[in-house]
Amino acid sequence: MFLVARFILGAGIGGTYVAVPVYISEALPLKHRTLGLGLINDVYYVGGLLSAGITYGTSFLQSTWAWRLPALCQIVFTVISIIALPFAPESPRWLAYQGRKDEALAAIAQVTSDGDISDPAVQLQFVQICESLDYEKEMETPSIKELCVNKGYRKRMLLVFSVAIFSMMTGSNIFSYYLGTALTNAGITDSTAQLQVNVVLNAFCLIICLFGTYMADRIGRKMLAIISTALCTVTLFIIGALTKEFGNSTNKSAIYANVAMMFLAQGFYSFGWTPILQMYPPELLSYQIRSIGMSWCITWQNMTILIPIFAFPIAMNNIGWITYMMNGGWNLFQLAIIAKYWVETRNLSLEEVSLLFDGEIHSQVTGVKKIIEGVPSKLDAEAVLAQVKPDIKHSTEPVDE
């Protein structure tokens, strides 16, 4: 029964990893989108902290409740989500695509201007969304073949695949899987002591990934990935060197240095890849392929993680420290791909990202970030709004909350 429950849980988690980033990217205003998307993965460490704390507390129970209680506690946040979801606004882009434009306008106003649909920033965002979606409606939903043939779609999907693969192969799985061995070598063999170390590690990674999310709008997604990958690469080479020189040694200084590098490596990964994993892919994808693109992203993540799970243990047993060096070498390849081919999406609305792939924005409205910040649009706002007056004819009064 426990195994069956794990399969059901896995299916549910897979669905949420597709739906949540799609919804948050479409529903949140530009100024909050980075934080919202980054927190999807960041709060993983909140769960890790709670899990480690609860497991530590129940480890003293002399019954099956030592493992039953931690498993049961996982239902708490699921119930909270089910209760809260009916009160969340629908995606304005989904509403507009369905032709429910009055509701789309109200949804934008709800998250942007406290329900005031007469706010020019709200109306201009509404126009940009509607015009861009009208352009997409003129085209049929792309098939898998078209995703490969069309230049814009192909580049979007290749970048999404790169996120899925690189995030699983940067070295984090080596760091997490072999931390227990490193702790044992350092003399921390007691299971309770190792639990305490995990609590500290989760708290450390939570702080680091929140800082990374904060920096995503300041240095950009691309630079965040470059810095995170570069730092992980350095630690991989250092761990490889320490393992080569002191792998079978009882030198405590070397063993402690190895543990310290494992900790730092987890932090370096958390700085960039933890927030980027759910932040960057939905921003890259246009409306018609956002859901299917995220589905493929999660699929490739789960396929790629099989490599470190099954292949790395064999490699560690046969070539030892060289495994770390090989992973570091792979990271250099990742760095080259990110530096050359990744595009920057910060400060762009989802509709404006099309400029990076299609060479144009499919709307008269541009510069949404500046509009939201109060900088006048280069366009005559009244002229733009007049063209879609039937869609926003109710926009003279604020929406009643």
From TrEMBL:
GO molecular function, one term: carbohydrate:proton symporter activity
Gene3D superfamilies per record: MFS general substrate transporter like domains
Membrane topology: Multi-pass membrane protein
Main localization (coarse): membrane
GO CC terms of this entry: membrane
Family matches, as InterPro entries: MFS_dom, MFS_sugar_transport-like, MFS_Sugar_Transporters, MFS_trans_sf, Sugar/inositol_transpt, Sugar_transporter_CS
Chain ranges of the Major facilitator superfamily (MFS) profile domain: 1-346
Top-level division of the source organism's lineage: Eukaryota
Compartment(s) where it occurs, according to its Swiss-Prot or TrEMBL record: Membrane
Transmembrane segments: 6-24, 36-57, 69-88, 158-179, 199-216, 223-242, 254-272, 293-315
The entry's keywords: Membrane, Transmembrane, Transmembrane helix, Transport
Family designation: Belongs to the major facilitator superfamily. Sugar transporter (TC 2.A.1.1) family.
PANTHER family the record matches: HEXOSE TRANSPORTER, PLASTIDIC GLUCOSE TRANSPORTER 4
Record-given protein name: Major facilitator superfamily (MFS) profile domain-containing protein
Species assigned in the record: Fusarium falciforme
